Amino acid sequence: MPQSTELDAAEVDVAVTGAVAFAGTDASAPTDADTPVGTVDSDYRDVGYLSADGVVEARDRSTNNIVAWQNSDIVRVVTTEASITVQFTMIQTNPDTLELFYGSAVDPTDGSVKIVPRESGGRRSVIVDYVDGDKFVRLWLPNAEVTEVEGPSLTSGDAAGMGVTLTGYPETVNGDTFSAQKFFSDLVGS
């Protein structure tokens, strides 16, 4: 029976802890996985505690098969739609989490937030970090928008969770067009 010769337990990552932060789309771009977010740009706002489910990164792709008349062979597959999203549930309530969830800033005079269900709050730059020991991984979405919300869930014995899904849109940065960029500290120089 063949066995893999490339087994390396040190290359198995566990997202032990991490953070999510957002800023305006004009915020500075990260250049690595381990520079503190506030050093990248002081406008980034950390959303604080997330639920134990952490962050789910998803890439979706829809395709269309081009089928030939002869033999009904598939001769090409065309991508018709593609996206990247991140989803998480914020369990810390503060002006930053409320603004991200409701799409509207908190009024500091009375502590209220005006809710307009159709409003997303606009596009933002988003950084998702996770740490595993001395490994740092950073996902950057330079142009993302809240496209789905869930909750808040209000139950006895649980945190009032505010779930959000952010979709990354294509952005051109330094001549390259992409929806997200991911940095791995342990891959530098590989």
The H/E string reads: EHEEEHEEEEEE
Mean pLDDT: 93
* Strand segment tally: 10
Please work out how many helical segments DSSP would assign.
Answer: 2
Cα shape: globular
Q: How many discrete structural domains?
A: 1
Give unreliable regions as ranges: none
Distance between the termini: 31 Å
Question: How does this model look, in words?
Answer:
The protein has helices at 37-40, 95-102, and strands at 17-24, 45-46, 50-67, 74-90, 123-132, 135-153, 161-168, 171-173, 176-178, 181-184. The chain is globular. With 190 residues, the chain is mostly beta strands. The protein has one domain. Strands 1, 2, 3, 4, 5, 6, 7 and 10 form an eight-stranded antiparallel β-sheet that branches. A two-stranded antiparallel ribbon has the order 8-9.
Q: Layout of SSEs?
A:
Elements (H helix, E strand, L loop, with lengths): L16 E8 L12 H4 L4 E2 L3 E18 L6 E17 L4 H8 L20 E10 L2 E19 L7 E8 L2 E3 L2 E3 L2 E4 L6
Antiparallel strand pairs: 1-2, 1-5, 3-4, 4-7, 5-6, 6-7, 6-10, 8-9
In short:
The protein has 190 residues and is mostly beta strands. The protein is built from 2 helices and 10 strands; from the N terminus they run βαβββαββββββ. Strands 1, 2, 3, 4, 5, 6, 7 and 10 form an 8-stranded antiparallel beta sheet that branches. Strands 8-9 form a two-stranded antiparallel ribbon.
